[in-house]
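RECORD TYPE: protein structure
NAME: Do/DeqQ family serine protease
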Amino acid sequence: MKHVHNKLIVTFFAIVALAHLGFITGNGHCENLRLTPVVRAVQKTSPAVVNITVARIVERGVSPFAQFFKNDPFDMFLEGGVGGPTRKFRALSTGSGVIINGPRGLVLTNAHVLAGGSDITVRLINGDEFKAEIIGSDADFDLAVLKIKGANGLPQVQMGDSSDIYIGETVIAIGNPFGYTHTVTTGVVSALKRTVKSEDGAFTDFIQTDAAINPGNSGGPLLNILGELIGINTAMQAHAEGIGFAIPINRAKRVVEELLASGKVSPVWLGLSGQDLDQSSANYFGLARVHGLLVSEVYRGMPAAQAGLASGDVILAVNGIEVEDKDAYISLLRAQTHSDDVVLDVLHRGRKEKIKVRPTSLDPQQLENFAWSKWGIKIGKDSRGNGVLVSAVQKDSPAAKLGLQPGDKIHQIGNRRLKIPQDFLDSFLRYRLNRKVLMEVQRGRNFYHVKLNS
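PREDICTED:
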């Protein structure tokens, strides 16, 4: 009897406690038990998640016979060939974003969501639509900031801290996959500091999650269980389920700071030149296989020199990611900002060491000077449209030995097409370590594919 009495007392206090916490309604149903931490996080953050629609003007060939086959299911085969008539079309694509500053109407999203867009519309969860403009965008970090026009009193997401993420902790992704607005998926953090390789290079330091991230989710928030923003959803692993990636919010904060200040992220460098190793040099350094960057020159006063690097050192890894060759080194460095410390694994005087160095920014004038000293090329400030105009060629430089002349137009360097002077500087930064650089050059009406030996 005493035992039953004690059970009644325990039950009574449990009911009182649940009622006090708001879990039991007047009719005794535990409806609020459904209000889980995930639901609370979604309710808290959803108003700050936006759908982004981007309009692009695309041009494609049109067959002169297409008018005779209107609404034909085989009209895809009637596109015009090279040199035939063309027609401009308005194409739409969608993505996601998250409001990071309500009073200023600032939205954080992926750069690839906006790429090539001529008209941008942002839609809130309540259906309100606003036009938006790009404040800044950087493809190397795949991040962009939009400003919503004509909106006031917007909600904003609560910023989190991606430095203390636990592997295995619950995460929430919100976005607009395949046009289904404000879709919520959940999962866990599968891994940290992942590297994802693409045709444009390597993206580093990603959060890996098994929360479903599909086309249209790009640019949306990855949240922790508290509804705090810890990442920007950016990619999914092709032909695989349960593997998605997000940019850590701490990295995104540093990028946003530069985008708001100048509209772009200033490229960085360590102040060194280098080259690939071959089998004989790998054997000389005692490497089991050919990989790494052999430092050929260290510039005085630059971060590499200040950190103690010297000509003849071999850079084996950047932030724990192996350097296969000079292209991999450039790609890994492109993923850093001037406020990021970089840890290099270096073979220095026959010993493996870890050296911490902070990159320095390169402004356009410094890049111009660097291109002039290394390649011997200056580009005219008024270059625009197709190709950039060569305004000067330095005597006895690689450009002079190639035969470039003022008045020539450079249309392509490597796999990059050039339209404005900044394209030339970006290409130089990308290919500055290459001994041979392929270019497409126009002189008069003639086009040539040439090789610059630097």
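COMMENT: The chain has ten helices and 27 strands.
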